[in-house]
Amino acid sequence: MDSLDVATTIERLAALEQFSLNTFVERRRRRPEGAPTRLQEHVLVVARRCGHLAVSEVSALLEVSPPTASQLLGTMEARGWISRTLSPDDRRRHDIALTPAGQAVVAQAEARRRARFERVVAALDGTERAQLVALAERLVQILAGQAADGEGGL
Predict the structure, then answer these.
(1) Torsion of CA 68, 94, 99, 75, to 10 degrees
(2) Is 58 a member of any domain?
(3) Phi, then psi, of 125 in degrees rounded to 5
């Protein structure tokens, strides 16, 4: 493969990003009624990793106002995916935790995501898979260096 300059690389990656966005929008259109949105799935995954999460932490994570986060969590609670309780340490704080139904939603979402990813990776040959991993590791290394310098991510 030929070498690319920075501008051409960014242009080609932007086209891929547009394709990815279109795919995401199409997948959203096919989302079954009552299934979690990607945002709801994200909150469920983070809540599972953290155990308990405060509403204020969800607000900060999603970069939305506390009332917006609370509304999202209210929908998720009504669907039985999370429970909200007063924190035993701070009576002003509400913690969320996954219910068994929320755990099942996370497990299903992760299984679907992994199956999609496996189909994509399986289409690559061994050399391409090695290149993909090496490039991903290099990108993480560069981004980590920028974060250490205070520049943040992409």
Answers:
(1) -20
(2) yes
(3) -85, 175
Look up tokens 């990813």; give the residue.
117
Q: Tell me the helix, strand and coil percentages in the chain, rounded to 5.
A: 70, 10, 25
pLDDT tens column, 94-149: 888 999 999 999 999 899 889 989 999 999 999 999 999 999 999 999 988 887 77
Go through the chain and tell me how many residues it has: 154
End-to-end Cα separation, the chain, in angstroms: 25
Range of the domain at 81: 36-101
Residue 117 to residue 111: CA distance in whole angstroms:
10
- Residue 116 domain-assigned (yes or no): no
pTM value > 0.70: no
Q: How many domains does the chain have?
A: 2
Q: Report yes or no: 77 and 84 within 8 Å, Cβ to Cβ.
A: yes
The first and second tokens of residue 99, run together, are 């219910």
CB of 132 within 8 A of CB of 124? yes
pLDDT exceeds cutoff 70 at 22: no
Residue 96: inside a domain: yes
